[in-house]
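G., the chain you wanted modeled:
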Amino acid sequence: MKDYPLVSIITVNYNQFEFTVAMIESLSQLTYPNVEIIVVDNASTEDVLWDSIKSASVEIIYAERNLGFAGGNNLGIKKAKGKYLLFLNNDTTVVPDLLEPLVQFCENNSNVGAVGPQIVYADHPSRIQFSGSRLNRYTSQIKWMNLDLAVENHKDIVELSDLVHGAAMLVPTKVIKEVGMMSEEFFLLYEEFDWCERMKEAGYSLFYIGASKVFHKVSMTMKNSPIKSYYMTRNRILFIQRNFTGLQRYCSLLFVLLIGVPKSLFQLGLKREWKLIRVTLKGVFSHLKRKPVKEYPKKEFIQALK
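Predicted structure as tokens:
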């Protein structure tokens, strides 16, 4: 590339200061020469030592309350100046040449809504978490593609993907100006999938770029938590309600309510996870009380990004 357009790297921190610092340290090794790093502290309740991070390329933004994953990232979007925005989970680390293949692909293809790199498990670097996906619109099930390939065999893969994983996704700013920011109705989980659907509806395509790589520690604070159980259930139904219509919506809701949820409840019952059973059921019934949430008008998106 002759030019290196500015890339704004946005991450959200909530009580994971050590992970965030490790991520920033890995970003300092990037070979891409034109980045800004925006850390949104989502009203952490633990002591965080942001003053210990001395770098002109890192900006810390403090949220007044916990805005969730979507709201935290949206706060970062409003401050970003880049032509491209890279959304990174704070429990990730990156390879030095992460950005070059992603940016170059976007520069050469005007119809890109978002691109995602190869994501591997940090504790098992030979195992792949994300390498492209297919969405079954009659069950809402997501199939992760190319998992059987060895990690080193992904460097030449560039292919369409139905969804891009929110742990690491690069989005052109022009796309956000058109489709808007993430929906804060989700708060946590599925918000990036909803965003991907809106990008596709606007005529953009999503891609997996195997030449880039990110290591992911995978939701360290949410493993087997009531929060994850609640939002995973609630937001899958919400995702269907917002993005599917007709027979696809009807079949997907039936699949979740008659197969997906009963299966989860049975597995939790075998483990005597009574609290997780309660919050899973709460997630199921929360959609009955759902009220439409006003999305940001297009003018507000554009104004926030100027």
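Residues 226-289 form one domain.

Shout if anything looks off.
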